[in-house]
């Protein structure tokens, strides 16, 4: 696969996800950003105000893998979201596939009682 093809796949995935999110505009968005090393997550309301944010750099976790770190991040983020009295969010995964760290984060949120 050429590099340009991968870039085009990411752009298409991002456009597809953002188009679907417009139908759920009344719910807060959980934006997930992933780098090679860290995972970032933040919850925004309809006006774009950040309600809660957390990243894996700030965790003092003893997790051995990045997927385990994503699970810990999801659990801690769920506690922060519950303090804001939010029970349901829309997952904005951007150009990332629902696989691996993104999936682990979403499953940890669901297990903690936050629907996404």
The CATH topology annotation reads as: Nucleotidyltransferase, domain 5
String of helices and strands: HEEEHEH
How would the global form be characterised? globular
Distance between the termini: 32 Å
Overall CATH architecture: 2-Layer Sandwich
Major beta sheet summary: 4 strands, mixed
Topology, number of strands:
4
Low-confidence stretches: none
Mean pLDDT: 92
Strand content range? 15-25%
Rg calc:
14 Å
What structural class do the secondary elements suggest? Answer: alpha+beta
How much helix is in the residues? 40-55%
* Tally of distinct domains: 1
Strand order of the largest sheet: 3-2-1-4
CATH class annotation = Alpha Beta
The number of distinct helices, counting runs of at least 4 residues, comes to 3
Give the SSE layout.
Blueprint lengths: L2 H19 L7 E6 L4 E6 L5 E6 L10 H18 L6 E3 L8 H11 L5
Parallel strand pairs: 1-4
Antiparallel strand pairs: 1-2, 2-3
Helix pairs in contact: 2-3
Description:
- The chain has 116 residues and is an alpha+beta fold.
- It has 3 helices and 4 strands, in the order H-E-E-E-H-E-H.
- It has helices spanning 3-21, 66-83, 101-111, and strands spanning 29-34, 39-44, 50-55, 90-92.
- A 4-stranded mixed sheet has the order 3-2-1-4.
- Strand 1 and strand 2 (39-44) form a beta hairpin.
- The longest helix has 19 residues, at 3-21.
What are the key terms here?
Nucleotidyltransferase, domain 5; 4 strands; 4-stranded mixed β-sheet; globular; 116 residues; alpha+beta
Short description:
The chain is an alpha+beta fold. The chain has three helices and four strands. The protein has one domain (about 5-110): 2-Layer Sandwich (Nucleotidyltransferase, domain 5), CATH 3.30.420.
